[in-house]
Amino acid sequence: MALQAAPAPAATEKVMENAEDAERARAPAARGREVRGFVLHDGLLDPAEQAAMMEDLRGVIAGAPLFSPMTPHGKPMSVRMTSAGAVGWVSDRRGYRYAPLHPRGTPWPPIPERVLAVWRAVAGVGRLPDCCLINFYAEGARMGMHQDRDEADFAWPVVSISLGDEALFRIGNAARGGSTESLWLRSGDVMVMGGAARLAHHGVDRIAFGSSTLLPRAGRINLTLRVAL
Ligand SMILES: O=C(O)CCC(=O)C(=O)O
């Protein structure tokens, strides 16, 4: 993995008010380039690491199969999804939420170590995520502009890992509407959505189906690591 830790931030020098502050400041984050407050690590995972992560994810999906969620309004989402971790993200008529069980009633598999290593390298916090949401984009799948706001505490970042086909990712604002900026996310890219950008609207307009050979039948996997509870 081409993971490089940056020097410890100045925050470590300030007086910590509680153990949680100390935990948050303990882990120096790798550097990346910033796009509207989202920190992008282009190509952080090399092809061998991407392939190994896909192998781990096949194990997760075998234990917690992908399912097609419905919005609370009863509309099917075009992405299929599943999760790993203590909780998984689900959506149905009862709303968006984190749940301790897969819709078929079984616990979610643990988050693979290789995936947690990415969080440790870039998140810059001492706490580990308790959810890894796995989105699968087949041809034509997209994700509308939304905020990630089902988590208990927005102070924790969300870390996104892209695998497979390229995706046109759009970043907006904390408030609805206004100008947006788009960028292509490629296989192996890692992005940190934190700080003031944590509640920015974002979405995927489309994928370039077949642009990567990582998945044997093409498509895209996106992982988002979240501290949900
Ligand atoms: O697929 C992506 O890059 C974004 C996924 C996302 O926004 C989400 O899961 O909330």
If you had to describe this structure to a student in words, what would you say it looks like?
Helix content is 15%, strand content 31%. The chain is α+β, with helices and mostly antiparallel strands and 229 residues long. It is built from three helices and 13 strands; from the N terminus they run αββαβββαββββββββ. Mean pLDDT is 91; it is low at 4-26. It has helices at 19-26, 47-63, 113-122, and strands at residues 33-35, 38-41, 80-85, 88-92, 95-99, 131-137, 143-146, 158-164, 166-171, 181-185, 190-193, 202-208, 220-226. The protein has one domain (32-226): Sandwich (Jelly Rolls). A seven-stranded antiparallel beta sheet has the order 1-2-11-8-13-6-3, covered by helices on one side. A four-stranded antiparallel beta sheet has the order 7-12-9-10, with no helix packed on it. Strands 4-5 form a two-stranded antiparallel ribbon. Bound molecules: 2-oxoglutaric acid. 2-oxoglutaric acid is lined by residues 133, 135, 143, 148, 160, 167, 169, 185, 202, 204, 222, 224. Residues 133, 135, 143, 148, 160, 167, 169, 185, 202, 204, 222, 224 line the site of 2-oxoglutaric acid.
List keywords for this structure.
about 230 residues; alpha+beta; Jelly Rolls; 3 helices; binds 2-oxoglutaric acid
